[in-house]
Amino acid sequence: MQPDRHELALCVNGTPYQRTVEARMLLSDFLRHELRLAGTHVGCEHGVCGACTILIDGAPVRSCLMFAVQANGCELSTIEGLAAASGDLDPLQQAMHEHHGLQCGYCTPGILMTMTAFLKENPAPTEDEVREALSGNLCRCTGYQNIVDAVLAAAANLRAAAP
Amino acid sequence: MTTRFFGAPVKRNEDRKLLTGQALFIDDVELPGLLHAAFLRSQVAHAKIRGIDVSEVLKRPGVVAAYTAEDLGGYWRPGPLLVSPPPIPGIVFNERTHVPLAKEVIRCAGEPLAIVVAESRYIAEDALDDIVVDLEMLPAVVDLEKALKTGTAYVHDDLGNNVAAHVHQAKGDYAKAAAKAHLTLKRRFRYEHGISSPIETRGVVAQWDARAEHMTLWDTTQAPVFVRNVLAGALGLGEGQVRVIAPFVGGGFGPKIMMLYPEEATLPWIAMRLNRPVKWIEDRFEHFVATTQERGQIHDAEIALDKDGRILGVRDVFLHDNGAYNPYGLTVPINSQCTMLGPYVIPAYDSTFTSVFTNLPIVTPYRGAGRQHGVFVIERLLDLAAHALDIDRAEIRRRNFIPKDAFPYQNELIYQDFAPLQYDSGNYEPVLDKALKAIGYDNFIREEQPKLRAQGRCVGMGIACYVEGTGIGPYEGAKVQVRANGKVSVATGIGTQGQGHFTSFAQIVADQLGVDVTDVDIVTGDTDRFYWGAGTFASRGAVVAGNAVNEASLAVRKKALKLASDAFECSEDDLVFADGKVSIVGVPGKFIRLGDLAQRANPMRGAVKPGTEPGLESTQYFGPPSGATANGVHAMIVEIDPETFDLKVLKYVVVHDCGTVINPMIVEGQIHGGVAQGIGNAFYEKLSFDDQGQLLNASLADYLLPTALDVPRMELDHTVTPSPLNPLGIKGAGEAGAIPVGALFAQAIEDALELKRKSIELLEIPLSPSRVFELIREGER
Amino acid sequence: MKPAPFKYIRASSLDHALSVKAEYGDEARFLAGGQSLIPSMNFRLARPAVLIDINGLAELASVDLSGETRLGALTRYASLERNGAFLKACPLIAEALPHIAHPQIRNRGTIGGNLSHADPASELPAVALAMQARIRLKSSRGERELGASEFFVGILTTDIGPDEMLAEIVFPPPPPSTGTCFMEVARRRGDFALAGVVAIVSLDEEGCCTSIRVALCGVGDTPVDASAAAASLIRQRCTDQAIEAVAADVQRAIAPPGNVHASADYQRHVAGVLTRRTIAAAHQRAAHAA
């Protein structure tokens, strides 16, 4: 079978891209190897570990469970878009740093994207709510405690900074 | 040395890169002309290979090459024995190392049969379907006891049995001890550990520069120096022609230190033949069979005690599941054997194990490295003894602790570092006391538990003690160099998989040289930057490499003092290091920047005096005489649903002693992560092989890693008994969290469900709700 | 774990989707949320020659609460979670939704995809069975409707024909004074159920049971309708004893397979426990609703 190729136009972190891709190329591979946005990581390719989580039109999804062609016309957000243009870390990234919420850092991109969306919808979460929201992202290094602390701290900082 | 940074919870230097998605992990390596490899892996555990036909593969567009064992020609050979058996009298060790591609016989499911190289991983996987494999099935050796009976199949035909090793170690006279005992208890225990499953799997990228005759290998290895040495030898290259780079690695936990994995051995060979760089990234499905793991042991253990619950002796005979090959020697079962002694005085100990070949993936160390198994047995034996003698479970442990003035304590057995097991230091009672206080031990037993039980709630408590041998040799080295701009570069031979070396080592340097932690850049895992070393394993990174960094920093400090005292014509005692400068005490205006001192150390004119070296740098090595012994106590309160047997951890306490602490934030993170893996081991994770050696749950949907809802908040505390074996007094901490959790769960579940009253004992790990249900039903019959 | 090659067709309309499906039959699969299909394709367990992407067909994502509850197949779990009116109208589905995987999956996954995948441990097929939902199938030949009990045929197998698409699910409204409850036991939140029970209890003015529906997930090749085993409660008061008896009858009526996570006996045991608990809770809620 000749590879089935399709045109694709989408936006990642505000930048438009146009490519032609094989239909079966996973969105995770497209981001990492076509667009060279390697911050999104691949951990399992069956939708369980959550390392590949990105935002599509603001909602967290597993990029390993989508074909790149399905993202045609969509606005994607990945870890590369979180820090400010100045290089300043955003409040969640900063809190993760201050609370030692990462060790090897491999699961971190998925957690940042999941929690970014979560905090938008839940600005004042309890610890239980944070853990539940985090339960779709596997971490093998940290035991989650510091990540939870970081998210709670980021939530507090965002609330304090809000107008 | 000032201690502005050492001992402080300094935030990590490496975080920014990781938080912004800029850190380079293995699959981020992109090279022009990069090809992709996929491995055809055996679907069956044991078979004779009649033929592997790859002829159709090359017809597929996008495929560049396909290889079987035959194609490797003279390059094909069983890998080296990486860890020799320890020099134990009477030891039987049958060396059978793994091979790069199966030839003639398949010995475990997942063993690689062929390699396809293509323009993309997608095409390479398509091409695997084109390979025709002709096999003659053989019965699989899976059950440990059956493997040693007559009539069984053999994993290695030439051996005539399935014995990988037989080891007997003893001290004192157990038979005598048992004869005098007030109580002897004997039980059979089964302990299963699982896969490491870091969120990043393994990977290798090989790039051969034919003109420079130089091989670069990116590899998720925990031991880049060893990989370089072994590969160079195998490829017929000089060590200087091979560079191994371990980039950012997404979790190691042990199996990434296994070396000369088939993929590590073959990718460089392929890169040389095709003259194009090749990449292989393990996918999650492969990880279940292609990366080493730990599995099970069966222990028949007996303990002899006096009427006060003091241990007179322990005798243990156990079987260890080795897997199909034994390239990594006997580290795991030796650890089980030695760690069973725990923090206790055990005057007589008689331990025998048979390491058994099975048609299953290779077993090599995974966080804890066999210590879990030993700790489970001794802790359960003590719990059973406590119940039989009606002694409080904390009290029976306390009575058996090695007293604090008995160190260094000789346990006589040969340990994994080939030296007699010696506990260098320790003070166990305060650790237990802190843990009991933190968990609210007395109050729970006297008030909380009875009150909640009266409400129909099943709550229980567990406590478990352990000792952990850490920080073994052989050695590590570090080079510290002050640059002209005043920043300090450090390189060491070990690799980093999240332990924070980029920060903890910088703290050591920063205090010695009076610079800021952020002005110290650390390179780990690049053999071009540091030539010598062993690797990151066995909780030794901070101890051994950290001390090497310290030695090198001290040497640089001495040089700087000499240079500055010459420059100021003053005594070295009048000088102080701070803010990147060396100045005269009390005269802050009189200073030289470190960077300037570095330039002075490399003069354009004049002679360098004999006995000195140019530059403000030094390379030093550190090799401890033996390992430093850490210890700890875990305590936990759980609640169990008496109908579904589901479990919730209400409180979890860890008190540990890892000697002097460089960065408490990093150590606590290591404990958190270790406990999470311990909870996975005790309650969630189980490798389910069928009797033909097929893994039934090879996916993260069915091999269950704990999530944020499954790992409790932990309360941590620590004590400090510095190790006398290194100048910094450090002991290792990487594995501590994972070690006693199985024993803890068994005790706590028994307590919550009051199983002792029904004479039901939990003598195995893992314990899922279903398994607890089955064990209770069996016990009630 | 990369999927095998396929031809990708983005459906421009429902008719287009159906005509392509008619052309390729079983060689083509519909791509909706992809949260079950794509993992199986990445494992190369599923290798459709053609994927028909129906995500653009907004008409399939309708939620109609005007009479019976009618959900278009493309309705994503997340949109149901955010639909307050729906959660109120369908508390049973509302109770099951948080057990389905994780938010990231629920942002993409659809109920049509879930039901056509027909995993026996999945929650919604058991809910559909308990509620006696009707499944509307469309093809280029026309439409047909069948009850949930006829729809789930075997393990991962439904009655959907080679040219058909699951288009809509219709949930009849419960009688007045009805209480519902869903509970499951899983190893971790979001995992497939080791056993799950759906109970729907309706009461008369005296508080006697007028109808009871019980369905289970995770204990058979398909969701299991155990309502017959619960029939002894009809025209009775739901006393603890009566509920216990039903739980025992339900245990006898099922033949759980056991799996790597749980023995068959444990599944049976837990099914009994959950049957008791869900019926008791549903009864309580029905009594409140009265």
Report on the architecture of this protein.
The complex is a heterotrimer of chains A (163), B (781) and C (290). Chain A contains 5 helices and 5 strands. Chain A is α+β, with helices and mostly antiparallel strands. In chain A, β1 and β2 form a beta hairpin. The mean pLDDT of chain B is 95. Chain B has a 7-stranded mixed sheet with strand order 3-6-1-13-10-11-12. Chain B contains 18 helices and 30 strands. Chain B has 3 domains: 203 residues, Aldehyde Oxidoreductase, domain 3, CATH 3.90.1170; 257 residues, Aldehyde oxidase/xanthine dehydrogenase, molybdopterin binding domain (Aldehyde Oxidoreductase, domain 4, 2-Layer Sandwich), CATH 3.30.365; 150 residues, Aldehyde Oxidoreductase, domain 4. Chain C is an alpha+beta fold. Chain C has 3 domains: 47 residues, Uridine Diphospho-n-acetylenolpyruvylglucosamine Reductase, domain 2 (2-Layer Sandwich), CATH 3.30.43; 113 residues, Uridine Diphospho-n-acetylenolpyruvylglucosamine Reductase, domain 3 (2-Layer Sandwich); 112 residues, Enolase-like, domain 1 (2-Layer Sandwich), CATH 3.30.390. In chain C, α10 packs across α11. Chains in contact: A-B, A-C, B-C.
Can you give keywords for this protein?
heterotrimer; B: 781 residues; alpha+beta; Aldehyde Oxidoreductase, domain 3; Aldehyde Oxidoreductase, domain 4; 3 domains; seven-stranded mixed beta sheet; 18 helices; globular; C: 290 residues; Uridine Diphospho-n-acetylenolpyruvylglucosamine Reductase, domain 2; Uridine Diphospho-n-acetylenolpyruvylglucosamine Reductase, domain 3; Enolase-like, domain 1; five-stranded antiparallel beta sheet; four-stranded antiparallel beta sheet
Q: State the name of the first-level CATH class of the largest domain in chain B.
A: Alpha Beta
Largest protein interface?
A-B, 58 and 58 residues
Q: Give the total of domains of chain A.
A: 2
**Percent helix of chain B:** 25-40%
Question: Which strand order spans the largest sheet of chain A, edge to edge or round the barrel?
Answer: 2-1-5-3-4
User: Distance between the terminal alpha carbons of chain B, to the nearest Å?
Assistant: 67 Å
What shape does the CA trace of chain B take?
globular
Helix content of chain A: 25-40%
Average pLDDT, all residues of chain A: 97
The chain-level mean pLDDT of chain B equals 95
CATH topology of the largest domain in chain B: Aldehyde Oxidoreductase, domain 4
Question: What assembly state would you assign to the polypeptide chains in this entry?
Answer: heterotrimer
Number of strands of chain A: 5
> Which radius of gyration of chain B do the C-alpha atoms yield?
28 Å
Total of DSSP H or I helical runs spanning 4+ residues of chain A: 5
State the CATH superfamily name of the largest domain in chain A. Answer: Beta-grasp domain
